[in-house]
Design goal:
mainly alpha, two-stranded antiparallel sheet, 6 helices, flat
């Protein structure tokens, strides 16, 4: 069971961390006026400061809310059943490339839906070919090849 407070605190900490990282990076680049005008880090620093301020506000505001449950255990499992395969897909893209990783993702997701095996395998095999024909041939936009594509000479 996940409470609203836990979700809000987690979100505030994550967004605050990203904002802080951008702010530190912007300060290294240079903030303020230079001989040629505004420094290149000025706008990112301002945006990052707004993100950090908003995160601190949300963190403080989350402490005012009661610890009300928002997600039950079955709901968390359903979210994880969608989210974890997507994370696996993203992890496979640098290794297999976008085309093959999409085929593996489709194979797993359709298998989970209990489709007939011939449909599952057919769609999973067709997915990389369709992606390749649409993006690489038709639009001439090369999708990420990954280690597998590099090893094959693409």
């Amino acid at each position: 069971m996940i409470s609203r407070r836990a979700l809000e605190v987690t979100t505030a900490v994550l967004t605050g961390s990203f904002g802080t990282a951008i702010l530190v990076s912007s300060l290294r680049i240079g903030v303020g006026w230079t001989g040629s005008g505004v420094g290149t880090g000025t706008f990112p620093a301002i945006a990052a400061a707004v993100v950090v301020a908003g995160s601190l506000y949300n963190l403080a505001r989350s402490m005012l809310h009661a610890n009300v449950p928002v997600l039950s255990t079955p709901q968390v499992r359903r979210i994880a059943a969608f989210f974890l395969p997507a994370v696996g897909f993203v992890a496979l893209v640098p290794l297999l490339g976008l085309h093959a990783a999409a085929g593996v993702y489709m194979l797993y997701m359709l298998w989970r839906q209990r489709l007939p095996w011939w449909k599952t395998v057919g769609i999973a095999i067709a997915t990389p070919f369709i992606l390749y024909s649409v993006f690489d041939w038709t639009f001439q936009v090369q999708l990420l090849r990954g280690f597998l594509g590099s090893a094959m000479g693409y």
